[in-house]
Design a protein that fits this description.
The chain is mainly beta. It contains one helix and 28 strands. It is rod-shaped, with a radius of gyration of 45 Å. It starts with a helix and ends in a 5-residue tail after the last strand.
Length: 330
């Protein structure tokens, strides 16, 4: 009886051993990615990539060679080939390209279909900022600067950085900007609507982002065009006093003023100039004031002529009183 049991046990052991030898080592049946990749990394970033090779029962298969190839994006991979470890994992380090966009890596396990890894690379953080427009060296005080001051923000590889936050600060000239903080557009550009201060002199606008070197824009504010034309020589005893010129204020640039020799008792006196509209001589005192291109006297003289305002004018008055002020049509 004991002998029978011995031979039975031996037979079972031989049978099981034969089956084990027939099955042999695990054979690769599938490959799959392991772990999670950052799906929107910055250009030039590196990350580890792992692929696992398994048999039909899902057990890891060791010592399987896997080749790695960059298929898109211009990046690099190292090493370009590796073997699976005891868990069936093969790994490499993938460095993305330096241009934003799609990056693709392919893993090719020996005897199995390829495994594809894809990510979209974004621009890196701001690394530089530079002027992207040339502002005029000078402009009338109180006017908007054109073209508008513009900067471009780039990453360490020269790619534009959309959405970069740029702060614009007026640091001289007491001007203003429509928005103190601007987000860069798709081309990495940020612009400021800058209006110069109303005083003549230097104006400076400074753009900043993060800890990068600021960018400055400078414009010299000049006197603007005349906003008023005032005609104001004093009239004394029928004469504009020596040294009293007609001064341009009160009126608009481009207005035409009538200037002529004084009309005294119906006769134009040589070399006498008085500003005003059309009319005839008369006695008395008062001021000439123009309205809608003509002049009228309170109780004073009215003289006529043609010319442009803005120049100093001297000469004889027409009666006593003050010179007129008003644009008159040509």
């Amino acid at each position: 009886m004991a002998r029978r049991l011995f031979f039975l046990a031996l037979s079972v052991a031989l049978l099981l051993g034969g089956c084990r030898d027939a099955a042999g080592p695990p054979r690769p049946a599938a490959a799959l990615p392991i772990g999670t990749l950052e799906l929107a990394p910055a250009v030039g970033a590196s990350q580890d990539v792992v692929v696992r090779v398994t048999d039909a029962q899902g057990r890891g298969v060791s010592n399987v060679q896997v080749g790695w190839t960059v298929a898109a994006g211009g990046g690099a991979v190292a090493p370009s080939a590796s073997r699976t470890d005891a868990q069936g994992d093969a790994r490499t380090t993938w460095t993305l390209g330096t241009v934003p966009g799609a990056n693709v890596l392919k893993a090719a396990p020996s005897g199995l279909p390829e495994v594809t890894f894809s990510v979209a690379a974004n621009p890196g953080p701001p690394a530089s900022m530079a002027a992207a427009s040339a502002v005029p060296g000078q402009a009338p005080a109180g006017t908007a600067v054109a073209p508008a001051p513009t900067v471009v923000v780039r990453d360490g590889y020269g790619n534009a950085v959309p959405g970069a936050v740029v702060a614009f600060t007026v640091e001289a000239g007491a001007g203003s900007v429509a928005a103190a903080v601007v987000n860069a557009d798709a081309d990495g550009r940020a612009s400021a609507a800058w209006t110069l201060g109303t005083a003549v002199g230097g104006n400076t606008l400074v753009a900043r982002t993060g800890a990068l070197e600021p960018v400055s824009f400078s414009v010299q504010a000049l006197p603007g065009e005349a906003a008023r034309i005032d005609l104001g020589g004093r009239v004394r005893g029928g004469k504009v006093a020596d040294g009293d010129d007609a001064v341009a204020n009160d009126g608009d640039v481009g207005d035409t003023w009538r200037v002529a020799a004084a009309v005294v008792d119906g006769t134009a006196a040589d070399d006498d100039v008085v500003l005003g509209g059309a009319g005839r001589a008369g006695g008395g005192s008062g001021c000439m004031r123009g309205a809608s291109g003509a002049t009228r006297a309170g109780s004073g003289s009215i003289c006529s002529g043609s010319g442009r305002g803005g120049s100093g004018l001297r000469g004889s008055g027409c009666g006593s009183g003050c010179a007129g002020r008003s644009p008159a049509s040509a």
